[in-house]
User: Fold this.
Amino acid sequence: MTHRVIYRFRRDLRLEDHLALARALAEGRLVPVLLLDDVTVARIRANARRTAFYCAAVAALDEALRERGARLIVRRARHAGPALVSLARSLGAGAVAWSWTYDGPGLADDRDAVQALEEAGIRALVSHDAPVLSPEEVDLQRHAAGEGYRAFAPFYAAWRRVALAGAANDRLLDGAFDVAGIEGEALPTSHDFGHEPAALEFAGGAPAAASRLAAFLAYPAREYTIARRLFAGPSTAHLGPDLALGAISARCVVRELRALAGRPYAVVEERHSYAEAERSLALRDFFLQLSWHWPRTHERPLQEKATALRFAEDAVGVGAWEHGMTGYPLVDAAMRELRARGWMHPKARAVAASFLCFDLGVSWRRGREIFDRYLIEDDAALATGNWQWIAGVGADMAQYPRIYNPVRQARTFDPEGRYVRQWVPELASVPAHAIHAPLDAPPRAQMELALFEAARYPRPVVDHGAAARAFLARYRAALSHPT
Ligand SMILES: Cc1cc2nc3c(=O)[nH]c(=O)nc-3n(C[C@H](O)[C@H](O)[C@H](O)COP(=O)(O)OP(=O)(O)OC[C@H]3O[C@@H](n4cnc5c(N)ncnc54)[C@H](O)[C@@H]3O)c2cc1C
Assistant:
């Protein structure tokens, strides 16, 4: 008789190229379970788009299981550990398998669930599936294995030396599931999370993620170096939300990029683009391992000495920042894109985050919380790592944090003002030479601006130059005399 193993889908909502699923299969026939526990619900309910995207991904997984004669067994419970113990007992399962999460609260919950299961005499089989390479695999590349990397450059050098696993064989899934006679609850809907169903620009679920990857590889991937830099340039991959829910395998993305880069007729610029896109996936692995090794970073800076540097939790201007009304057109375009789409251009995120932390002096935690109100991507480990990085209190801490000048960034990477025109309609008819700093235009030009909608556009909430100088003075003082 084969053993029953519960497979708990969490942030790995697909069947394809699934390491944790493949490992669990070696233990017996799988009961596919989705647990709507407090930790999961708290993350997913952050905004209506995220909820709709999640529900679509769950529905797609259920459909894929039905094509294999199974279905998703849904359970609602407050705490994962006790719920899994009682489910395993009622189903006569000797083991529960799932894949690790990487953000602080998710990881604590995973570890609690492991403990609850082990205390009940049930095996917990937890594997790495989300990263391209597991933290341990990259750690083994250096002598002090198990310590993790606090800087990206050595991590990336090690990451590139590790061989990538081949695709998990989907044929293994034939006859893999066992749901006979097991009752489940209804699939989650937006209402379960307290939202009305939201319209989505990007459809959710593994098939949609695969199409998105195919569309990216078909052309935009060749221009990725430009896409990352120009705010209104070619499209980046838009795979963040899919990767966050595991609707696509990160290993599959890297394999495809390497295959393209290896084609004999790929030109040098294309190869650069493929390599840079692969580096982005390595950056994702870097932040996942950072949170894995230092889960406390969810609340506290990676750099202990940076705790001496005080950021406000609130300040005049935060509301204007959130609503895209700071008077800095690039920052405002970025925040309005976020609110309108549930997504923001990656480089625009860096500029908008820098503005909040340095120009307004507000904490990275507050910034993360505000982004979370709108982002479809639900990856708290990536959010934390990036916010701390920008705030100069996380990985790769330099002598001084990089303070982005929002006007200079706009003039360099949005020279025609296309991005600003798209998201800040008040400035749509302002000429390119004035669009990024309307108040710096010569007096005559300013009189002309008043004729346009630009008159409705706010004055800057802060003087960037003065704010940056004041911040650097505080930074120097705090780090030379830590409290
Ligand atoms: C302040 C700030 C906050 C961020 N918050 C989040 C967040 O909440 N959730 C989230 O998933 N990402 C976050 N990022 C990382 C990154 O901006 C997004 O992953 C990316 O914009 C997603 O869009 P894309 O798929 O088109 O990216 P692409 O540029 O096409 O990259 C492809 C994939 O590589 C990975 N990647 C790219 N850049 C990064 C990066 N800087 N860090 C980690 N992985 C990366 C992502 O998985 C991304 O989907 C944040 C970045 C900054 C600067």
The chain has three domains: 4-129, 130-166+206-293, 304-480. The pocket of flavin-adenine dinucleotide is lined by residues 228, 236-240, 243-244, 280-281, 283-284, 287, 346, 349-350, 353, 371, 375, 377, 379, 382-383, 386-387, 390 (CB under 6 Å). The mean pLDDT is 93. The beta strands are 4-9, 29-36, 73-76, 95-99, 123-127.
